[in-house]
Amino acid sequence: MNNQRRSLLKAALAPLLLPFFGHEALAAQPPLSEISEIRIIQAKDPARILDRVSTSGFAHSMAQSVLAYIIESYPKGNLPVWKKPLSEIDLHSRIPVICTHVVQGVLRHASIYPVDPCWIMGQMMAESFFYEFAVSSALAVGPCQFMAATARGYNLVCADRHGQPAGFALREDLEPEFKQAATYRDQMRALRREQPDLFGNPAKLLRTLVNAQAAGKPLSAAGTYALALDRMDLLQASYTASRDNCRLFLSENFQNRSIFSPQDVAFLEKFDQRVLYSHSINAMVKMMAENLRARGGNILAATAGYNAGLGNTDSKYGVYSTYGRIPNFGETVDYVSKILVNHHEITRRIV
């Protein structure tokens, strides 16, 4: 984008930015940098990041950069995840608080491995677009999209096992659905292990079946494959029904609540801490620090591990085993790609 177009864009955005930054902040904004720095292999020495993050006003500058990026990128239409226009979402209250928690987490866990706070902001944007009550189709919850099992590893209370007495939560009749969904999920995994070719490489199996049929020697296992497919269809339908009930349970208990209400926060502390910044962001930064340490500072492999599981980023080949890899999963590749862009756009706007 040339300077003239950028000037026109800033002029058009000025009225939108005023509620967030004020006249003085807008007037003082420098031109956007065309260059942002990301070291793929992050240094183990925390001094470089800590010196920057510890600077007075860094969290504020990062918050302004994130807000400016969102405002410029989504002037019309609904925001991802929120499914509402920017004008209906109070991001100017949320983002500064989120940035403060990110900086605190980076400082707290620097001894594990230094984490770039702008990367975490870009990652959270890809995960949930900063929506505290986001619930994914896989039942990941909160701004950092933690699955319950992972969250409990960081001592977070989760809705499926909140441990409160009867009458505490709404729609308690739906709580058993979490266990039922887990059972169906385990059965589907077991079936995939039993039939690795059918569910892992169906194209190869289909070719084998077609060739056998053409040769007049149909495979005796064809009937077994058909039964396995029918079984998987039934399990998938049952799992989907249970999962949808789990999402309904979460939705009923999140509805009309606010993380800025002391009364609601008191409930959420006991019901599901994944939606609260202090818990989820601290856990996210710590997990990324642990992933970076496990992958020799490779931020791409560490991030892929957050999305797909760290075990899926293993590499068995010589020097590469230290740094890991990005697994060939479409969702994970898309995830890491978005975060790279988010990081670039955030860092180039920091004053």
Automatic annotation (TrEMBL):
Transmembrane region positions? Answer: none
Keyword Transcription (UniProt): no
Could you say which residues form the signal peptide?
1-27
Q: Which UniProt keywords apply?
A: Signal
Keyword check for Signal: yes
The highest taxon in the source lineage is Bacteria
Protein's UniProt name: Transglycosylase SLT domain-containing protein
**Organism whose genome encodes this protein:** Desulfomicrobium apsheronum
